[in-house]
Amino acid sequence: MTGVSRQVVLHERPTGAPALSNFRLETVELPPPAENQVQVRNLWMSVDPYMRRRLYDDPGYTTSFVIGQPLEGAAVGRVTATNDPGYPIGTLVLSGLGWREAFNAPVSALNRLKIGDLPPEVFLAEAGTTGLAAYIGLVRIAGIKTKETIFISAAAGAVGLVACQIALAQGCTVIGSAGGLEKCEYLTSIGVHRVIDYHAARSLSAALREAAGSGIDVYFDNVGGEHLQAALDVANTFARFVLCGMISQGSGRIAASSPPPTNLLLAITKRIRLQGFIVGDYLSETDTFAAEMSSWIKSGRVKPKATTKIGLESAPAALLDLFRGANLGKMLVRLT
Amino acid sequence: MTGVSRQVVLHERPTGAPALSNFRLETVELPPPAENQVQVRNLWMSVDPYMRRRLYDDPGYTTSFVIGQPLEGAAVGRVTATNDPGYPIGTLVLSGLGWREAFNAPVSALNRLKIGDLPPEVFLAEAGTTGLAAYIGLVRIAGIKTKETIFISAAAGAVGLVACQIALAQGCTVIGSAGGLEKCEYLTSIGVHRVIDYHAARSLSAALREAAGSGIDVYFDNVGGEHLQAALDVANTFARFVLCGMISQGSGRIAASSPPPTNLLLAITKRIRLQGFIVGDYLSETDTFAAEMSSWIKSGRVKPKATTKIGLESAPAALLDLFRGANLGKMLVRLT
After folding, report:
1. CATH class of B129-280
2. Closest alpha carbon to B27 in B67, B74, B70, B72
3. I need a surface site. Which of A143, A296, B226, B296 has the fewest CB within 10 A?
4. In this complex, do B268 and A237 lie within 8 Å of one another by their Cβ atoms?
């Protein structure tokens, strides 16, 4: 199976915010798979917020993408040629080799997917690390309990939307914030109790106070900045804050778009616990979680939702769109 | 035993920072104790950072001092007249009725002190809630372990000094920050491994990075602001931050003197847990702790250290001095 594959390469590091000119689309020859390798054609790839950091030098807890090399990220694909009898042609696999249409790899770089009746792209989203992040944050880090009030920022984003549905299924009162009418209406449609459109809210603290009534017990933070400030203002004593993402605080060389909270003193007077986590620390739980989430999706407890771009050539724009919050649910790129 | 007692009354709430003019010294008549009451003459009283909040309206987790009424706070005294056979004359007691020379109260408002060989004022400091705060923060909230690196800000303050000694006794590497040469030299003299004079440090992050070598595992925060920023910069992954006080962030109507940290994103990438606590939630452990701390003091593991003012009339100035960081160790007022 000699052929070609297109791939997105890091052309240069961004000097300010990431731009399309930082990426380059290349066509490379794809030889037959070597001994002990299989050839995979990707069906879907994921774009994720953490990729922003990897565009820059010194990305912190992860490694930088390499200039001139294809980017990396989660993808699901199908085996199209094989030298491993355990992975026959047609096998569905999850890999970290997104940003390319096809590749050869040893099976040690692949994770066999058991999708059941579900579409495979769900394993890049709700049943993948996105959903796992929501689950770990709410259940393991915050320890949400029935009847608690949970505030989730960027609630219509990939992680936020799963978090809303897990909290709702747990019998919590859920307050979600999102930017714009479409996202807010979607949140309402899936049963989120109170929705704050932060594009429209004059004071986020005032809006959250009104939405929360007696205060929030848990804050699932995907945003930082002004949202964190409002959550501190409205938190109940002994509230737990899960720090999952801080879009507003930028990353790499990007300046923050929202000032840092000035009311951290409330963490003392209200005895608040704030805890950051990285889903990468929990990847050993991926398979167990995927099986559980599959049953939640089948039962309708969690509804998959993605914003989809078509074709590898649209992947850089999909990533930039993600940083602008253009997605409702998970941002995915369909490669076939 | 009819007599008089002097007391410090809240004359008016501060409009900006607290000032001496907010307080008034009054002399009141002290009738004999009523049935089931005892009369106590205070020996020592404590001034504490939390009292600042109580000068204002809306102090948060505590209640405001009342205008025209005597202030309150921890004090040790001796029973000088009694209608309760369980509290004979001479009994040493701890109460929340500081800021006055003498008072009548039911024994339910008193805690009998077992001082052993120790001076009674130690039970307002190292063996009181000050020491308890250090202990709870390090042991219960942070869970310090032998050989970890612990950074303690305001390390020469009342809580900080006890925290340093508990961490040293636990076999930790201790880094303390303090303002000025005298405090720094004292910290060195009790065995603190590295001392940062934050009056002299150009960049607190750079100074902390140099002091910490491979990074800090625990930050005991008495300050907030720039110190918290530096601690986030230099923290190891999975570091635990104990938020005990944020002097730099002011309180009540006081503006912050140090800007809030702009690098909270590091709490995610480094998986840091920040937890606020109030020693008032742990008062049921006071007696057990006092007994344990007494043995630590007798064995020399913890050395008592206080800055002492003499006479009730100096108590308001002692409180204001505390807010300026004028104290080395616990700030106390001797009333006899």
Report:
1. alpha beta
2. B70
3. A143
4. no
Render each residue's pLDDT in chain B as its tens digit; 336 residues.
569 999 999 999 999 999 999 999 999 999 999 999 999 999 999 999 889 989 999 877 789 999 999 999 999 999 999 999 999 999 999 999 999 999 999 999 999 998 988 999 999 999 999 999 999 999 999 999 999 999 999 999 999 999 999 999 999 999 999 999 999 999 999 999 999 999 999 999 999 999 999 999 999 999 899 999 999 999 999 999 999 976 655 543 344 457 889 999 899 999 999 999 999 999 999 999 999 999 999 999 999 999 999 999 999 999 999 988 899 999 999 999
Asked if A260 lies within 8 A of B260 by C-beta distance, the reply is yes
For CATH 3.90.180.10, the residue range(s) in chain B are 3-125+305-334
Q: Which CATH architecture has domain A3-125+304-334?
A: Alpha-Beta Complex (3.90)
Mutate to test the interface with A, among B258, B268, B277 (most CBs of A within 10 A): B268
On whether any CB of chain B is under 8 Å from the CB of A234, the answer is: no
- The single residue listed with the structure tokens 């603190």 is B192
Residue B88's CB is within 10 A of a number of other CB atoms, namely 10
Domain with CATH 3.90.180.10 in chain A: 3-125+304-334
| Contacts with A244 from chain B: Cβ below 8 Å | 268
Within chain B, which residue ranges are assigned CATH 3.40.50.720?
A: 129-280
CATH architecture of the region B3-125+305-334? Alpha-Beta Complex (3.90)
* B residues 243..302 contacting A (CB < 8 A): 243-246, 249-251, 256, 260-262, 264-278, 281
- Contact call for B265 and A251, based on CB within 8 A: yes
Which of A123, A138, A125 lies closest to A287 in space, CA to CA? A123
Inter-chain residue contact B264 with A269, CB threshold 8 Å:
no
